[in-house]
Amino acid sequence: MKRSFLILLLVAWLAGCATPAPPEPREILLAAAPETTLRETMHLLMERGYVIRHADGDLGRLEAVLGRMPGYGVSLRVAGQGEGSRVSFIATRGGRPLPPTVLDPLLTDLQSRLGLLP
Amino acid sequence: MRRWLLLLLPAALAGCQVTPTTLPVAEPAPAAECRWSAGPGDSLDRVVTALEAEGFLVRHTDASLGLVSAERARTTIYHDNGVERLPRIGGFVLGGSGGHVSSGVMIGLGTGFGVGVDEATRIERLSVMLDQGQLQVARDIRMIDWRGDLRESRSASDAGFCRDLRDAIEAVPAGEAP
Questions:
Q1: Is A19 an 8 Å CB contact of chain B?
Q2: Is residue B6 in a domain?
Q3: Most buried by CB count within 10 Å: which residue of A72, B32, B83, B145?
Q4: Chain-centre distance for alpha carbon B177
Q5: What is the pLDDT of residues B151-174, one digit of tens each?
Q6: Taking a C-beta distance cutoff of 8 angstroms, is the pair B96, B102 a contact?
Q7: Is residue B45 one of the residues assigned to a domain?
């Protein structure tokens, strides 16, 4: 009885560690040009202490890192869509994706910087 | 005893699943000195020239976005090597005497000290953005020990560094950069 309980405990313990975070990116449509979106996101990330490792306006990509253990990162893909841009964000912690909801405050700030909020 | 184990289970699961609820930011936040108004002659050329003079290797630039990303590595002495960060805790004692068997738990605390000096590589990563007449700098520092393990990583957008970098950029003669 006691042994089976301990085995159950061990399995639950390990399962808790192994469950991967959902890797889907946070997607958003913005009524702004892709390059403007990239530029404002760079501003916001650098204000938060992120170091931009790579950004390219033509490719619509941005990679930023934060030097806090165990290492955080944000990567961005921007594609033009009509008048606006489709942006997808992924935040990682130690190389593993974080839940997309962590990006919501950043997205709100981005929209307010772009003047898209009422 | 079993109730105690049941209490342990959620604690163990929660310990595995700690994720931040908002995007982490640098602590402390970048200093105000890390953002300043660019002078009339400031350009990415001057920034790159100044960074190269400071010993940085430019890794990436994007002129249309006004971005320079660079890094600087140097070997240094890492004083913290061989010292355990947290004291080790734990212990289990089982013993018996005179026909009686008893068990108990003993808690011990200990720290270890090694020779404590070793070579490490210190890597600074930096990005500078020049946009709409504003220059903005962000930097971090990572220490990697001789085994290749990351020992320390922190944001370092501090006032002293940014002031020095600003002086270095303003010291570059305008028009000299290619």
A1: yes
A2: no
A3: A72
A4: 32
A5: 889 999 999 999 999 999 999 887
A6: yes
A7: yes
Question: For A8, which residue in chain B has the nearest alpha carbon?
Answer: B9
Please state the φ and ψ torsions of residue B10, each to the nearest 5 degrees: -60, -35
> CA A13: distance to chain centroid?
28
Residue range A9-22: mean pLDDT, rounded = 68
Contact of A96 with chain B, judged by CB distance below 8 Å, is answered with no
Distance separating alpha carbons of residues B155 and B140, to the nearest angstrom: 4
As a whole-number percent, the residues of chain A with pLDDT over 70 amount to 92
User: The tokens of B108 are what?
Assistant: 């011990």
Q: Does A93 touch chain B (CB under 8 A)?
A: yes
**Residue A53 is nearest to which of B20, B69, B155, comparing CB atoms?**
B69
Interchain proximity B20–A98, CB inside 8 Å? yes
Number of domains in chain B: 1
The DSSP secondary-structure symbol of A99 reads P
Rounded Cα–Cα distance for residues A111 and B11 (Å):
38
Domain that holds residue B154: 26-79+125-173
> pTM (2 decimals)?
0.74
Report how far residue B163's alpha carbon sits from residue B160's, in angstroms, rounded to the nearest whole number.
5
CATH number of domain containing B73: 3.30.310
Residue B68 lies in a domain: yes
> Given B24, B62, B69, which is nearest A72 (Cβ)?
B24
Provide the token pair at B127: 């990005």
